[in-house]
């Protein structure tokens, strides 16, 4: 019985994937035959054609037809195109895979529509009901071709859930407007890419090309204006460790029918005010008064409210229904649910700050990438702006700030943002954070005995972004594991190093500087030789290396860069060390490497054995959050100088 059931299931699956012959398209076959390995020796696949046509109605509803022709060149290319996925949200968009054809030489096969599945998208932390069209493409061989045609309408940038009839649900939130960001590069070479948008004649479009050049053509009919952008022979992007976001380096078009940023700002303000997103009740007012009662200054009161919202509203997105995605959840709803995504956490803080008497507004930003000065929707994050005076605001980010003394992450300095206000605001930018703000300072004092054993104490302090990450190392570790985390740092001095004890400031107290103080010991730390000891500096071993605090290490690869480097923040590492020696040294050993200084980074250091002490001072500075590719040699040289200094061996004779 079990075998019969298995056979039946396999048979059903096979039937669902039946391919049927289709009439060959001579144009497509010719295009595919023009692509060979001699022209693209290193490509796993080649995008032969990437064609998009958009027809925009007066309401802003967009109809999008796309056509892709791809030639797979290697087994890896075959594997990468073994499935095709088209995402959409049924509440705000419609999507259809019209056809998938497989070209094997002069033969063409078309995938049955029964083989295209409609499934929920994988979801984690945000549960808004998006779906996907998913097609499993039959076994491909190198030099096969694929032709995919799709149709969609509506929008997926904002997740709108409603029960509007017919096409009403697909009209964008800013009714009558259209916007898009189109990248003209990808992971594979592209022979030809076109993007055409047809608009009602009276609609004026703002459009600009960034990071390169694209040919643009404009034509007219009686009622329409047609814009067409095209580019040919586009090389695949060369990915590099630590490179900036694709949108900051690939050639792209940003376009919008919105007149300017103040119009976008006023819309964002009005849509949330109409939704009564920031109304508060007696329960919220009571909680606000309770949180702020022990604080005297406005800054401290706002910071206390920020800390409460950051820690009490967990990050978990559940749809509130109509308006989800671009409307902030009502503060009363979030207060009751104690959950939301960044926009809802921001909305909770706006609500509580208004309850405390501060004029406060939501703001849109793009975490991790820049916003171009075209009023298209280029945002992925929501924050809070308190109005101090006309045109003067103070920014708060409650999503970032659990267990942080920062009110706005230094990882977003500089960063563009737009505040939603009644008067309408322009695109603004936070100022860069000087590296001194994001310092990491380790002060180490040790005692070396006459057998070469070391007892030491390190005190680690930090500022802004660096302090937050230092605190997170403790906060996000289970209590029994905290000592293991600190031991993993100390064992970078020596595999034999052990933690004797440690203490920290309470990371929940955002009004006090966070620190970690570690007492440790290292048996046989110094190598005993004839009439002397040899050792390396403990503090210069970069014990805090991690993907966040020292992300620049991952970017050091090769002699030059094709893309700018994205770092989490500027930084300044300051290491100071004193080791008391068991005897007065007969020699003076001083190591002072050549200093490195440049536009993006610098290094200097000095280590001295003199008398009964060893002293070391070292400073490594990252001056820019985004390192221009032409500054990479400066970053590489500074980092390598720091690495070389880490390996210096000192000697004191007795």
Please provide a written account of the structure.
The protein has 654 residues and is α+β, with helices and mostly antiparallel strands. The chain folds into three domains: 2-257, Immunoglobulin-like; 263-429, C8orf32 fold (Roll), CATH 3.10.620.30; 439-653, Jelly Rolls. It is 20% helix and 35% strand. The protein is built from twelve helices and 38 strands. The strands form nine sheets. The protein has a nine-stranded mixed beta sheet. Strands 25, 26, 27, 28, 32, 33, 34, 35 and 36 form a nine-stranded mixed beta sheet that branches. The protein has a five-stranded antiparallel beta sheet with strand order 22-21-20-23-24, covered by helices on one side. A hairpin with an 8-residue loop joins β23 (416-419) and β24 (428-429). α7 (331-337) crosses α8 (342-355). It is globular. The termini are far apart.
Instruction: Name the average pLDDT.
Output: 91
Strand order of the largest sheet: 1-6-5-10-3-2-12-15-14
- Classify the secondary structure makeup into a structural class: alpha+beta
**What's the Cα radius of gyration?**
30 Å
What is the CATH top level name of the largest domain? Mainly Beta
Using the coordinates shown, work out and report the CATH topology of the largest domain: Immunoglobulin-like
Largest sheet: 9 strands, mixed
Low-confidence stretches: 1-18, 158-165
Morphology: globular
The total strand number stands at 38
């Amino acid at each position: 019985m079990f075998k019969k059931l298995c056979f039946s299931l396999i048979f059903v699956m096979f039937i669902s994937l039946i391919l049927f012959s289709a009439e060959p398209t001579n144009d497509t076959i010719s295009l595919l035959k023009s692509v060979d390995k001699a022209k693209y020796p290193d490509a796993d696949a080649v995008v032969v054609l990437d064609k998009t046509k958009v027809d925009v109605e007066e309401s802003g509803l967009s109809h999008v037809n796309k056509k892709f022709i791809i030639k797979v060149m290697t087994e890896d290319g075959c594997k990468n195109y073994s499935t095709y996925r088209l995402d959409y949200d049924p509440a705000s968009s419609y999507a259809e895979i019209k056809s998938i054809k497989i070209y094997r030489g002069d033969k063409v096969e078309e995938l049955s529509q029964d083989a295209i599945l409609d499934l929920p998208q994988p979801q984690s932390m945000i549960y808004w009901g998006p779906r996907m069209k998913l097609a499993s493409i039959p076994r491909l061989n190198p030099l096969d071709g694929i032709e995919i045609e799709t149709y969609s309408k509506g929008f997926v940038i904002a997740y709108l859930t409603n029960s509007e009839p017919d096409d009403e649900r697909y009209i964008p939130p800013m009714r009558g407007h259209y916007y898009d960001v189109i990248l003209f590069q990808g992971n594979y070479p592209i022979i030809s890419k076109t993007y055409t948008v047809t608009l009602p004649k009276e609609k004026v479009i703002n459009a600009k090309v960034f990071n390169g050049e694209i040919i643009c053509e404009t034509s007219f009919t009686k009622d329409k204006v047609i814009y067409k952008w095209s580019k040919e022979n586009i090389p695949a992007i060369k990915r590099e460790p630590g490179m900036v976001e694709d949108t900051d380096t690939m050639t792209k078009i940003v376009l919008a029918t919105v007149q300017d940023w103040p119009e976008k700002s006023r819309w964002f303000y009005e849509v949330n005010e109409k939704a009564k997103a920031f109304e508060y009740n007696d329960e919220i007012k009571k909680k606000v008064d309770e949180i702020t009662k022990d604080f005297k200054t406005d800054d401290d009161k706002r910071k206390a409210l920020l800390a409460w919202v950051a820690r009490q509203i967990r990050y978990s997105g559940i749809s509130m229904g109509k308006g989800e995605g671009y409307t902030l959840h009502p503060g009363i709803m979030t207060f009751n649910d104690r959950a939301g995504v960044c926009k809802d956490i921001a909305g909770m803080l706006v609500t509580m700050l208004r309850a405390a008497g501060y004029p406060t507004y939501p703001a849109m930003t793009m975490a991790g990438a820049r916003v171009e000065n075209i009023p298209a929707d280029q945002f992925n994050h929501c924050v809070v702006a308190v109005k101090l005076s006309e045109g003067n605001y103070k920014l708060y980010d409650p999503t970032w700030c659990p267990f942080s003394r920062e009110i706005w992450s230094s990882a977003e300095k500089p960063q563009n943002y737009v505040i939603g206000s009644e008067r309408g605001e322009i695109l603004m930018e936070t100022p860069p954070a000087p590296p001194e703000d994001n310092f990491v300072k380790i002060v180490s004092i040790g005692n070396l005995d006459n057998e070469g054993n070391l007892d030491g104490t390190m005190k680690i302090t930090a500022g802004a972004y660096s302090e937050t990450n230092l605190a997170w190392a403790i906060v996000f570790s289970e209590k029994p594991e905290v000592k293991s985390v600190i031991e993993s740092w100390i064992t970078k001095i020596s595999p034999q190093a052990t933690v004797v004890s440690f203490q920290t400031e309470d990371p929940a107290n955002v009004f006090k500087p966070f620190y970690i103080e570690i007492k440790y010991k290292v048996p046989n730390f110094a190598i005993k030789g004839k009439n002397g000891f040899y050792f390396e500096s403990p503090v210069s071993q970069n014990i805090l290396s991690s993907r966040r605090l020292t992300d620049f290490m991952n970017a050091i690869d090769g002699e030059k860069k094709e893309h700018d480097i994205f770092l989490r923040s500027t930084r300044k590492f300051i290491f100071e060390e004193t080791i008391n020696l068991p005897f007065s040294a007969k020699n003076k050993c001083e190591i002072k490497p050549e200093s490195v200084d440049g536009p993006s980074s610098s290094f200097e250091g000095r280590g001295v054995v003199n008398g009964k002490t060893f002293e070391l001072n070292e400073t490594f500075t990252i001056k820019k959050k985004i390192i221009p590719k032409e500054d990479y040699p400066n970053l590489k040289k500074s980092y390598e100088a720091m690495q070389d200094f880490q390996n210096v061996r000192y000697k004191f004779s007795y």
